[in-house]
């Protein structure tokens, strides 16, 4: 198969009530392992390269590797930019053949996040490429984060609805108690919040930081409306051990 877009994958997942795994690759071996596992499970898969991760394997090099693996794969494979934090980098990924992008403006004020995300979506949609965005704040490091902090960072259904309507993004990553770089599965996920956002938002929802989410909470999150599950820390830990 050749590379596919995440849009069709995630819309199917939303309609049928399942989630697609999205796994970060920083090198050839990680990308190979992700695709091999997807083939074993006979499941579609999203191979992600983050803006930071591309510093290890090289952006153009990683794109070429994943395209080659996708061409030989027996399952659908998408190539996705994870946490692209500037417009220029998103456009660079567009030029080298990524089949979906992510603009992460979660550190910005709501209006500024809307403005820049909308610009990225307009450019990407012009060539048929979908865009994921993030609203709320998923902490990049769990160290020192309290329950009160997490509540303050969480995505509100009202803002999620307005954000999607104003940006025309294709998928939305939300903050519901999840955190990046968690090596122990102990995140407390607000399942009711996911369900509430699902009711008012017309696009697939994304859960980042799933390495730190207990398996039963992942299952509940998918039932509540999550369509894409991001995993990175767990893969990195396995790769280095």
In short:
With 241 residues, the protein is an alpha/beta fold.
Tell me the layout of helices and strands.
Blueprint: H1 6-16, E1 20-24, H2 28-41, E2 45-50, H3 54-57, H4 59-72, E3 77-82, H5 87-95, E4 101-103, H6 110-125, E5 131-135, H7 147-153, H8 157-167, E6 171-174, H9 191-200, E7 205-207, H10 215-224, E8 226-231, H11 233-240
Parallel strand pairs: 1-2, 1-8, 2-3, 4-5, 5-6, 6-7, 7-8
Helix pairs in contact: 2-4, 5-6, 6-8, 8-9, 9-10
| CATH class (first level) name | Alpha Beta
* Beta-strand content bin: 15-25%
Which structural class matches the secondary elements? alpha/beta
Low-confidence stretches: none
Helix content: 40-55%
Number of helices: 11
Keywords:
16% strand; 8 strands; 241 residues; TIM Barrel; eight-stranded parallel β-sheet; alpha/beta; single chain; globular; 11 helices
Tell me about this structure.
By secondary structure, the chain is α/β, with parallel strands linked by helices. It has one domain (6-229, 233-240): TIM Barrel (Alpha-Beta Barrel), CATH 3.20.20.70. Helices cover 47% and strands 16% of the residues. The protein contains 11 helices and 8 strands. The protein has helices at 6-16, 28-41, 54-57, 59-72, 87-95, 110-125, 147-153, 157-167, 191-200, 215-224, 233-240; strands at 20-24, 45-50, 77-82, 101-103, 131-135, 171-174, 205-207, 226-231. The radius of gyration is 16 Å and the shape is globular.
């Amino acid at each position: 198969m050749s590379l596919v877009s995440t849009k069709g994958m995630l819309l199917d997942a939303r309609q049928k009530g399942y989630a697609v795994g999205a796994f970060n690759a920083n090198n050839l071996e990680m990308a190979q392992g992700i695709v091999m596992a997807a083939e074993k499970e006979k499941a579609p898969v999203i191979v992600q390269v983050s803006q930071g991760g591309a510093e290890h394997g090289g952006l153009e090099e990683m794109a070429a590797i994943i395209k080659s693996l996708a061409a030989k794969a027996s399952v659908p494979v998408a190539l996705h930019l994870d946490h692209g934090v500037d417009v220029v980098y998103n456009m660079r990924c567009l030029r080298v053949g990524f089949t979906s992008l992510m603009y992460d403006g979660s550190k910005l004020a709501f209006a500024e996040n809307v403005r820049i995300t909308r610009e990225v979506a307009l450019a990407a949609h012009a060539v048929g490429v979908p865009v994921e965005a993030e609203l709320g704040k998923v902490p990049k490091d769990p160290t020192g984060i309290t329950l009160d902090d997490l509540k303050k960072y969480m995505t509100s259904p009202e803002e999620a609805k307005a954000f999607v309507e104003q940006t025309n993004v294709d998928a939305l990553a939300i903050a519901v108690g999840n955190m990046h770089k968690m090596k122990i599965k102990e995140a407390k996920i607000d399942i009711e919040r996911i369900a509430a956002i699902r009711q008012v938002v017309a696009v697939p929802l994304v859960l980042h930081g799933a390495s730190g989410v207990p398996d039963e909470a992942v299952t509940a999150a998918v039932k509540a409306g999550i369509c894409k599950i991001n995993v990175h820390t767990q893969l990195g830990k396995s790769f280095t051990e």
